[in-house]
Amino acid sequence: MNSYFDGLEFSLCCCCPCHRGDIRHAASFYGVQFNCSGGFYLRINHGETIHADRPCVFITHPGVYYEYGNWKTPTRSHNFLCFYGPRVERYLDTGLLQINDGKPLIPVSEPEKVLELMQDIIALLHASRTTPPRAVLKLEELLLLLHEENSPSSAVPRHRRDTLTELMEIIRNHPEKEYDFDRFAASHGMNPEYFRRLFKAQSGLPPLQFQIRCRMRKAADLLTGTGLPVKEICRRCGIESEFYFSRLFKNTFRVAPGESRREFPSDSSVSCK
């Protein structure tokens, strides 16, 4: 008996909070590739190299050669879901799944929501030998979210982009420092609310959340690349409380700091294909 949920199979899936190395492959399936944090590069069919250092998604599809990996940061959070089947053709026909190799990156303004959906799908798949109907629904919810993200309602004015890019680079290089974002906004002729809206439009996150994400990225690099105690890593990331640090780290990467260090030691190479 046919079911509404028939026609979709998942092949590969993984959440890698501290990914290292490069991926090169000709895709055999459709895939949602989500760079949650950290810088990365993408090259399609040996063409132009694209760089990004904000949360974004790109869609892989059969018959295309992809190269992607770390850029600027030694590790990054990379998550992916691969799937196939006749149901995918419906997604393509209706526009739910959109592919644009000329402009492949989809900026994500709600990375936590995208990550949560992907982790829910992976958990459902691990708990079942067949494709659970709920996993199909959650994939469609994820594709709908990406469809909405790919249709932005506003853009950052050209004369503000360089200012925001410079600030993002300062925060990225020195996330441990304290920043007065309201004062920064006023010094550049913006009210705080307008500044936060523009910053989120350009970076994918509000200023404070962007700084926290940069602090957690620095913490992940220190955890996996050094033997420093957690207390010292907290200090270097501008966080006084180890408890608060552990909570932030787990909220960002879905693993505790100690688990991250055990799973991804400094001399290991984590590969996701």
Short recap of the structure:
A hairpin with a 4-residue loop joins strand 4 and strand 5 (49-52).
Q: Can you characterise this structure?
A:
The two termini are 34 Å apart. 45% of the residues lie in helices and 20% in strands. Mean pLDDT is 86; it is low at 264-273. It is built from ten helices and nine strands. With 273 residues, it is α+β, with helices and mostly antiparallel strands. The strands form two sheets. A five-stranded antiparallel beta sheet has the order 1-8-3-6-9. A four-stranded antiparallel beta sheet has the order 2-7-4-5, with no helix packed on it. It has helices at 86-94, 111-126, 133-149, 158-173, 181-187, 192-203, 207-225, 230-236, 242-253, 257-263; strands at residues 9-19, 22-26, 30-37, 40-44, 49-52, 56-60, 65-70, 76-84, 106-107. It has two domains: 10-149, Regulatory protein AraC (Jelly Rolls, Sandwich), CATH 2.60.120.280; 158-263, Orthogonal Bundle (Arc Repressor Mutant, subunit A). α2 (111-126) packs antiparallel against α3, α4 crosses α6 and α4 packs parallel to α7.
Distance between the termini: 34 Å
Rg measurement, Å = 19 Å
Shape: globular
Number of DSSP helices?
A: 10
State the order of secondary-structure elements, H for helix, E for strand.
EEEEEEEEHEHHHHHHHHH
